[in-house]
């Protein structure tokens, strides 16, 4: 399991970006959506970034180009 470094939520809190660090000291992210039904609730993955970023600052900057709802927020 990868521990999150940072969580960024959409305004409605139904989507989020999880930034994490690989064992190689590079950074990546995954997008998740919140779900709730009769049997379960929680966060389900939408997609994971295939990119590796050299720093947390680079990851924060580049994610905005790859996640439409995050880019629209700024």
> What percent strand?
35-45%
Morphology:
globular
Head-to-tail CA distance between termini: 31 Å
Order of helices and strands: EEEEHH
Strand pairing plus helix content: what structural class? alpha+beta
Q: Return the domain count.
A: 1
Q: Which residue ranges are poorly predicted, with pLDDT under 50 across at least 5 consecutive positions?
A: none
Number of strands: 4
Mean pLDDT: 89
The count of helical stretches stands at 2
Radius of gyration: 13 Å
Question: How are strands sequenced across the largest beta sheet?
Answer: 1-2-3-4
Report the biggest beta sheet as strand number plus sense, adding barrel if it closes.
4 strands, antiparallel
Query: Helix share of residues?
Result: 10-25%
What is the structure about, briefly put?
The chain is α+β, with helices and mostly antiparallel strands and 74 residues long. It has two helices and four strands, in the order ββββαα.
Q: How is this structure best described in words?
A:
- The chain is α+β, with helices and mostly antiparallel strands and 74 residues long.
- The protein has one domain.
- It is 23% helix and 42% strand.
- The chain has 2 helices and 4 strands.
- The chain has helices at residues 56-66, 68-73, and strands spanning 4-9, 15-21, 27-36, 41-48.
- It has a 4-stranded antiparallel β-sheet with strand order 1-2-3-4, covered by helices on one side.
- The protein is globular.
- The N and C termini lie far apart (31 Å).
């Amino acid at each position: 399991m990868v521990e999150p470094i940072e969580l960024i939520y959409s305004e409605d809190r139904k989507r989020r970006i999880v930034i994490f660090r690989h064992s190689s000291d590079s950074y990546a992210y995954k997008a998740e959506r919140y779900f709730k039904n009769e049997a379960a609730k929680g966060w389900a993955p939408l997609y994971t970034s295939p990119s590796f970023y050299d720093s947390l600052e680079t990851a924060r900057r580049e994610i905005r180009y790859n996640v439409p709802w995050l880019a629209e927020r700024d």
